[in-house]
Structures are given as C-alpha cells and as structure tokens.
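Re: your question from the hallway

Yes, I did run it. Sequences:
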Amino acid sequence: MIDFRSDTVTQPCAAMRQAMFDAPLGDDVYQDDPSVNALQDYAAELLGFDDALFTPSGTQANLLALMAHCGRGDEYICGQQAHNYLYEGGGAAVLGSVQAQPIENLRDGSMDLNKVRAAIKADDIHFVKTKLISLENTINGKVLSQDYMAAIQALAFEHNLRMHLDGARAFNAAVKLDIPICELVQYFDSVSICLSKGLGAPVGSLLMGSQDFIARARRWRKTCGGGMRQAGMLAAAGLYALQHNVARLADDHDNALYLAKQLAAITELDVKPELVQTNMVFVKSEVVNFNELAAALQNQGIFISGGQVLRLVTHLDVNKDKIDKLVAAIKRYIRG
Ligand SMILES: *Cc1c(COP(=O)(O)O)cnc(C)c1O
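Structure:
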C-alpha cells in the first residue's frame, strides 16, 4: 500500500515503537508522567518558549491557544485558508465564543498587511475586541518569509495584539529555510506543532508559550477532554520524532519536487514544479477526473485524495520507487 493522501498516514518505525514500549509512565493530569514532561521540556527548549503542553491533536492545540488568548466576544485574525478557520469545525466559535476574522491569503500564503490593519477593530461597543493574529507556516506547503512574519509582528505590537502560529508543519518551513526552528517561531507568543505529520509520530501535538499562557491552556485542555493519563507512551513517540525525524524532512521536499517533475511531463496534467516548496504537490487537470482516478488507483493499493485539485503529500513512508509506481499508474490510467 502506498499512500499520498497526507503526511499523517505514517507508521511508527521499530525504534519509535521500542521507545513507546520503554517509556516510563505516570499520570499526566497530575503532571507526573515523566515521558510527557520530558517531551514538553525538550520542545519548549528547542522552540525557545518557557513551557509546552502535549495535546491529542493539532486541532485541540490550536483551539486551546485561541481560547487561552481570547475570551468571549474577542476575535482572532487569520487567513481565509487557515486550518484553524476552515478545517477545525469552527471550534473557536463553537466552543470558545471567539469570532474569526478571516483575510484572503495571497498566492504565497501571506495576507496583505493593509487588509490586516484595516480588519483590526477600534475600541467601540459595536465591535468585538481584536486580540490575536494567527498565522500558519507552512500553509498549503508554502513557506512564509521571515520578513513577512516580522512585519506582521510589528503590526501586532502597534495594536497590542498577541501572535499565534499554527506550526503544524513549522519544521518543514525551518528545514526548507535551513534555519533553527527557534528562529522561525521567534515572532510568536504561542506556537502549535504536529508530531503526527511529517515527523512521523502516531498521535499528538504540542502547544508552546509562556508559563501563564500554558497554565490557561492546560485548564482548557481538561475542559475539552484532552487530559490524558499514562500519555507517556504517546509522548515517547513524539520525543523520538523530534530527535530523529526533523532533518530528514528535506528528503520529503526532494521527493515532492521529483514527483512534480514526473507529473509535469504528463500533458493531461497541470503541475508546476517551480511552485513546490516543501512536501506537497498540487495537480490540476482539464481532462482527468481525480475522484475517478483515486478510485482506479485504490484498486492497485495506491491511495490519493481526489477532489477538484489533487493534493499529493510526501512523507517518511514514501520514496522515489513508490513515486515511480504512482506516476506509472497515473500514466496507465490516462493512456488507457
Ligand atoms: C493537520 C493540521 C492541523 C491539526 O490537525 P490534527 O489532525 O487535528 O492533528 C492544524 N493545522 C494545520 C495547518 C494542519 O495541517
């Protein structure tokens, strides 16, 4: 089975499973699970924050961040394509009484600074209170520039707003820019990262921030049902992922480019290898129905997402050999 649907589909390797098996355990709701504490300490240090919190999912990490930064009647500004606006079930509104103010994302994933500025509400009883700007990096596989993040931070300072980064794939961005992760996230009051995407852990995310912020987030985590007990078995996988699977994200980026170049040679497909920055390839076509393609490939043990625009994602369980198999199967399907 070959799976290009997402980088969430990876299987833990033997050494990661061993680390999970060997993990010393406690009760993390009492904050005495040594493996969870080790992961949180390691990540806080690595990203340059005071404290960190292990969560069951990235969705929950983002929700806790929004609820810890914003209260009832507050809002956060984010991209129209932001995961924490589009793909998290409206959690901030549904569970946090927090309103989103989305701003369109430009082609490079950024937001127009003037539009962000214009969306910040004046202190007026008609308006909600703007509290937070939330960015995402990478966003749809694209890396935001450090200059852009610094400029948004300056705007946030000017208006006394906090800054959150949905860094589900922040390590992909840091590896792509060849800078330490702490440099990438220096502009933010809080950052969430996913351990269960390109980093290859089976489950889990982390939220980082100041001690006060994490204390508030921990409270909301309990409220949301995210207080896990002997969670060290999962945390050990996350620590293994952070210690072993960061630098190799460069292989995923190389593989995505390799895949894009193969697909660009197929005339029925519209693929732009020059737009591939990290581990995602986007494919359009006037003639190929991707849902039908997905169904045909599934019979051969190859999984892709389908949809209007086909998103193919590389990860640690994909190599050039598997990419060649995918490309060959797509060619067979198109040429009949
Ligand atoms: C995957 C993802 C999340 C969180 O996903 P979970 O499946 O809840 O872990 C958040 N933000 C972005 C950008 C993501 O890609």
